[in-house]
Amino acid sequence: MDQSYITNHLAEKRDQYFQAVAPPIIQSSNFAFKSVHQMRESIKDELNVPLYTRGCNPTVAILRKKIAALAGGEDALVLSSGSAAVSAAVTAQVSAGDHIICVAHPYGWTNKLLDITLKRFNVSTTFVDSTATENFKNAIQTNTKLIILESPNSITFELQNIKAVAALAKANNITTIIDNSYASPIYQKPLQMGIDISVHSATKYLSGHSDLVAGVIISSKAHIRKIFQGEFMTFGAAISPNDAWLMLRSLRTLAIRMEHITKNTEHVVSYLKSHPKVEKMYYPFDKNNPQYALARQQMKAAPGLFSIQIKANNIAEVEQFVDALKLFHLAVSWGGYESLVFPLCVLTTSENYSFSTRPFNLIRFSIGLDNPEELIKDLDNAFGKID
Fold first, then answer.
1. What global pTM score does this model have?
2. pLDDT of 355 above 70
């Protein structure tokens, strides 16, 4: 299905709402029925028939269809955050006594889910160096039920060989989940490579305007129905109709935003790679990246997120550099229209995130829609503030 058709037309039944070009926000928690029989029949399919907005809302239903089609899946669920999407998708696959294999250093709240929350219910996890498929194979146990991927991975952007891991999992009757937030469905389609379930922090590129928080789960109809009937409805992390409408708006420009952000990023990365005060670059499409060939094979392009290590003698110099930046907002998250900087040393006093395994001079950038030449001038000025 054509990508532009999906974002501009799919599931938009305009004859049902006065031929409005933009779909309406159905801001209702509840839906009424004309008869007991009609209500009874509707309850049979609460995933697809409006009964109560926690289950199905007409505005959210349009968004679900578009998201599923963009990712090459059969169906999708939209939740109130990326962490909610990961939590619902993961917990739906395991029971007490089961074993999970996960990439090393996953997203912080995914790590907490696996290493703290699920451990309380006797679900164990082995974290592996994901750059070699053999490590996944060696970690499989008789009770392994799930493999969790992030490709590219968080912060330092390690990749997994998605097709190889998916094939290994299928051969051992293991379900696979991937966090595909980095690439978005525009640049990478894991379901077409054999992955069972794809999740996204839709707060990032899918929304792209830094004005909402959301998550999505995309998979087969069977997987989606299983998650919906259990964890989705039980945890109740439903997105609001208004936020779903905002994401529908954002999908119209997703491809254009991704293309523009990618071009901007290439300019900035080229500048940073040759800068004498940059010690190391972490970016999937950097030709010096040992996984560059795999990145080109699996991804159409690499968008705006990358990290660098700067040549600094201490945390104070890192802070000097970051504080000198004027066009980059110092903030968490990424994937919006704005350009961001996030120094990992800010986590030294955090109770929620582990900093001890990260270099003190590691800094993550997210490039937005700014003029790249102006961003480079800003970076050049900041580098001038450190010895």
1. 0.95
2. no
